[in-house]
Design goal:
Length: 80
């Protein structure tokens, strides 16, 4: 399965408010990628945040910074 498709479907589920299902698809996309990109971690963090799992969201945004330390958007989310 293509990780980009899983991510896209997961993001659609997120937008529909189906957070648990969205989490499953995004996690599968991350697991399938050798080097997950910032967007995947950001999507997963947004899902955690929507579920009220703030600490898990912050940990996941930190992983995103590990991929791209200069990502301003992720830094702003961590500064909130």
């Amino acid at each position: 399965m293509n990780p980009a498709y899983l991510d896209s479907y997961g993001w659609v589920l997120f937008k529909m408010g189906k957070f648990s299902e969205a989490e499953e698809y995004i996690k599968r996309a991350i697991d399938l990628m050798e080097n997950p990109d910032v967007e995947l971690y950001d999507h997963l963090a947004e899902i955690y945040k929507a579920q009220g799992r703030e600490e898990k969201a912050r940990e996941t945004w930190q992983k995103a910074l590990g991929v791209d330390p200069d990502n301003v958007a992720i830094r702003e989310k961590l500064d909130r």
